[in-house]
Amino acid sequence: MEMFSALRPQDLWFLAEAAGKTLWISTLAISSGTLLGILFGWVLSVSGRLGSMTLGAVLDVFRSIPLIIQLVLFYNLFPIIGIPLDPFTAGTIVLSIYTLSLVSNVVRSGIESVSQDLRRASRSLGMSYWQDMRHIVWPVGLRAVFPAWVGVALSVLKDSALVSVLGYVELLRASQILITRTQEPLIIMAIVGLFYFFLSYPIARAASMVEKRWQQ
Amino acid sequence: MDYNFHWQPVFRRLPELLLAALDTLQVAVLAIILGIILGLLLAVLKMNATGKLKPLNWFARSWIELARNTPVLLQLFFFGFGLGALGLHLSPFMIVLAALTFNCAGYLAENFRGGLQSIPETQLRAARSLGMSAPKAYYYILFPQVLRNVWHPLTNQIVWAVLMSSLGMLVGYQELAGSAQYFASRTYRIFEYFAVVAVIYYILVKLILALSRLVAWRIFRGQGGV
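Above: the input entities. Below: the C-alpha cells describing the complete assembly.
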C-alpha cells in the first residue's frame, strides 16, 4: 500500500460511494425511526401522565445523552452479551432509536396541536376514532409539525457522521482515509462539506417550499 | 455471558470525571455566550441586504447555511486538521470552542431572526413617538419580547452545546467524554466508563433544563409564561 499520494480522480468516486452510504444509513434510520416514532408518539398522546412518566422518560434518555456515547455504549454492550454487532448494524440501530425518540416527541405535539373542538366535531359527524385520526388529526397535525420533522431528519442525516467512530466507512470516515493518504485536509474537507451540503440543503429547500404551498 | 463488570475503577475516578464535567460545562457555556453575540450579529446582517452591507449579508448567509447544513464533526475537524494544514495549530480546547461557537452562532442566528421578525415594526415606531430614545426602545420594548420568543430554542441550544462538546474526545480534548475515553483506554473498561459518563451527561442536561425553567419563571412571571 502506497502512502502520501496525490488526490486522484477515482478518489471522487470513493467519496461519492461513501456519500451513498451516508444517505443509505440515514434513510434507514429516518424511515424506521419515523414509523416507530409515529406509533410511540400516538401512544404518548393517549396514555397521559402514566405514559409520559414511563415511555416518555425512557425516550427522553436518548435525547439527553450525547449520540457518540450512545454509539460507543451500544457497540460495546453486544460483545459483552455474546452477540457482536458490525458497525453498520450497531450504527443503524442507535440512529433509529435516536430518531424515534425525537420523532415521537414531534408526533405527540402534532396530535396535541389539533384542537379538541375540531376532533369532537368530527366525531359528532359520525366519524369513527380512526377516521378522525386519518382525515382530521393527520392532515392538521402534519402541517403543524412538518418543519420540526424535517429538522429531525436533517439532523439525523448529519449526525450519521458519528457512526464513523465505530469504523463504518461513510462520508466522513472516507474523507479521513483520504486525508491520511494525501495529506490534503483542506481540499478534501471542502469536497466532503459540499457533499453534505448537497444532501442536506435541497431537502431543506424542498421542505420550505412545501410549507409555503400549505400556507396558501 | 463471561464478562464481569468492574465498576470499582470507574468509581475511583469519579472525582476526576466530575471535574471533567466542569470542563464540559465551561466550553459549552463559553460557546453559547459567543454564539449568542455572533448569532445576533449574523441575524441582523442577514436581515439587511442593502448598500454597503451587501458583502456582509452574503458572508452571514454563507456562515448560517454552512453551519446548519454540514455535520458538527466535520466543522470540528476543519478547525482541527483543516486549520492545522494552514499552519494554524489550535489547542484541543480552542478547536472545540471554535467549532461549537461556529455551529451555535449559525443555529441561533436563525432563531433570533425568527424572534426579531415576529415583532411588528410599528411597536418600535410607537415607542419612538412616545419619546423613547432608540436604545431605550430596543431595551424596553424589543428585547423582552424577543427574549421570550427565543427562550425555548436558546435552552435547547445550550443542551445541544453540552451534548456536542462530547465530540471533543475525537480531537484530544479531555472534557467528560474525552476523560472517559482516556481512562477507558488504560483499563479496557470502555462500557463501564461510558455508562457512568452517560449518567453524568443526563444529570447535566436535567440541571440545565431545570435552571432554564426556574429563570424563565422568574423573569417571565405575569407575562403568561414561555
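Note for the figure: DSSP finds nine helices and no strands in chain B.
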